[in-house]
Every structure is written in structure tokens, then in C-alpha cells.
């Protein structure tokens, strides 16, 4: 921004042009400068321009003297930290989101790249930048970045592509962070990052995330959230967010849909490719694909999906004199059999998960019961021993030779008994 001002030097006042970088309030300053520019270009002698200029009079009276706070000798790092501190301080807006923090910290890391040791990885450089932000004079304790946000920032900086970031930023332009489709917990998950795959390791060649799959995943996730939250109030939109399990399942779904589209493209079926992407954005065939992922059939292929027979390779039967009824019936039986196999695989996965959770619950209950019993035994043993020492004046002998100590034991016990009885109120 270029500003003209009075710089006093040697007792003489000179009007010079100087350039400063806007640390905060760039949008507001741009709007105000645009209003001034439009007012300066209007023809006051023209009635039409004058009528357009009249509503701006209350603003123009105050715009010619804009109060500015200028700090000299600020480094790019200090400018970034000051921007974040002022963003947190503003009461009329939300604090910076994970995306805003990631972009700002990423810019600082790029500026510090030559000054930091080359052996430092992204995590250590990010720690250094976050520490600098925490030590900035304008940063309060409540604005510090916690571990959950730090993990989300690291994932965003290292595991996302430019296209996916653009979709995410576009969504945040229309939604505040508190009311958007993302949370720090979701971004902290590693399933959606570049190079990540399903935890089970099944079909890594298909379920490994790349740039195209990640971009589609973010698009589908945002679209699903917007559809669910369309009729909700702003305060209730957070309920429309996906859970962590739904987040991972949607990542698997998008990976398979992109692979199916790429396979259709290799076969030269461009219309089928476009249809698959359209179906992915509408989340069509989602139950079928999730059943395949949960079933984890060893020899599973993309051609086993319902969408393949519906979109990529639909079976066309010509009705003529040589119409083969048997072939049609066999095709129908085969399609029904494939559908039943998918349902059986889903039921097997549900049954296995039920037994796994049941066994885990029983194991936890057994451990809790045993631990409680051991604790009660320890408590009971201590109480019994304390009671025996104070109230039961007896002694077990395992050897006849121990009778030599019996007389001294009785003398001691008699003294303790007299001392106990002397404390009773009715002993006198």
C-alpha cells in the first residue's frame, strides 16, 4: 500500500510517498481505498455522478484522515505473528482456523528455510515456528496451539495437495470454522493424507490415497455436509459433521471410485468415466463399496462392483428371433448370485465385528472383576490383621519349644488388657 504523509526532516516539512505492508485489515483498507478511487473519478458536474456520490458523503468526510499504526523494521516472521495475534484478538470475527494457521505457518517455514538446519524435518520446523508464535509479545496463553491442532497442521502441510486445499479453502470462504464440515479431530486423521491406505492393508494398490482421490474426497465430504446441514440452524450445523469412522469410510469409497473411473478411461469409455465421477459426488453405490471393503475378499476386482455392470459394461440384450432365453436367465441368476455374495460378505463382516466387540467387552469385565476382588482381598487382609493385633490376644504355636515364650507373652497381653480396661468409663 502506498501512502502519502508528512515526514519532518531537518525542520523542513516534505510530502513524500512511502510504502508499507498491511499487517491486518487488508480487506477493509482495500474497500476504503476503492471508495476513494471511485469518488475521485466521478464528475461532480454531472447530475448522475453527483447522485451516486451523495450517499458516500458520511464516509468521505472521515476517509481523508485515516488513522494508521505503523511499525518500522518488522521482519516477515513478526508480521505473520502480529497478524495471527490480531486475528485472535478481534471480537467481531472467529479466531484463525486450522487452514489459516497452516497457510500462515507454512509461509513462515518457507521464509526460514535457509536459516534453519537442513537436517530438521517438517515436524521440528513446525515446532520452531509455533514456539516463535507463542513467544510473540501479542500472543496470549489461551491462543497457544495444542497438540491436537499441531497434528492437524502437520497433516495439512505435509499430506495435502494444492487442489484439495483449494476446495477446502473455498468451503471456508462461505462457512466459519465453528460451522464448517471439518474439525481438528478429522484433519488429524491420517487416512485422508497422500500415500495413506486402509489400516487392514487390503488392496493397497486401489485404496492408497493420491492427489485425484484426495481432491474428490474433500469435494464429496463438503457436499455431504452441505446437504445434511442445509435445513439446520447455524448453531446446530456441527451435528451434521461426519464421525471419524464415516470420514475413513468415505476415503475408501473415493479411492475405489477414482480407480474405477481411471479403469474406464483406459478402456476408452469417457462417458462412463464422467458418470462414475458424478455417481461419486452423489455417493451412489456407497453401501456396495463399503461392503466390499469390509468383506476383504482375496480375489476381489473392480469388475465385481455393481457400478461396473451398470455404467462401464452394461449388458445389452437384443430382442429378435434368435433371442436366447437361457442366456438371459443365466445372466440374471449370476447377477443375483453376485448380489447375494456381497450381502453375505457384509453379514460376515458384521458378525465378526460383533463377536470381536463382545469378546473385548467380556475380557474387560473379567479383568475389572478380578482387579476388584484382589483389591478387596488386600483391604480385608489389612483390616483383619489390624483387628487381630488390637483385640485378639492369642498366639498360634507350631512347636512345643515355643512354650518358653508363653509366660512373657501372657504378661504382655495382661498389661495391654489392663490398659484397655482402664480406658473404659465403667471400669471404676
Structure write-up:
With 428 residues, this protein is mainly alpha-helical. Among the domains are: 1-70, no CATH class; 393-422, no CATH class. Helix content is 61%, strand content 4%. The protein has helices at 26-41, 47-53, 57-63, 76-89, 98-111, 122-134, 147-158, 162-174, 184-188, 204-207, 211-228, 244-266, 270-281, 286-295, 306-312, 325-391, 406-422; strands spanning 2-9, 12-19. Strands 1-2 form a two-stranded antiparallel ribbon. A hairpin with a 2-residue loop joins strand 1 (2-9) and strand 2. The longest helix has 67 residues, at 325-391. The chain starts with a strand and ends in a 6-residue tail after the last helix. The model is unreliable at 1-12 and 316-323 (pLDDT under 50).
Characteristics:
two-stranded antiparallel ribbon; mainly alpha; 428 residues; flat; 17 helices; single chain
Please summarize the sheet with the most strands.
Answer: 2 strands, antiparallel
Q: What is the helix/strand order?
A: EEHHHHHHHHHHHHHHHHH
Query: Which blocks of ≥5 consecutive residues have pLDDT under 50?
Result: 1-12, 316-323
Placed side by side, the strands forming the largest sheet appear as 1-2
Fraction of residues in helix: 55-70%
Number of helices: 17
Shape: flat
Give average pLDDT, whole number: 77
Beta-strand portion reads: under 5%
Q: Ends: how far apart?
A: 101 Å
Radius of gyration: 37 Å
Overall number of strands:
2
Category from helices, strands and their pairing:
mainly alpha
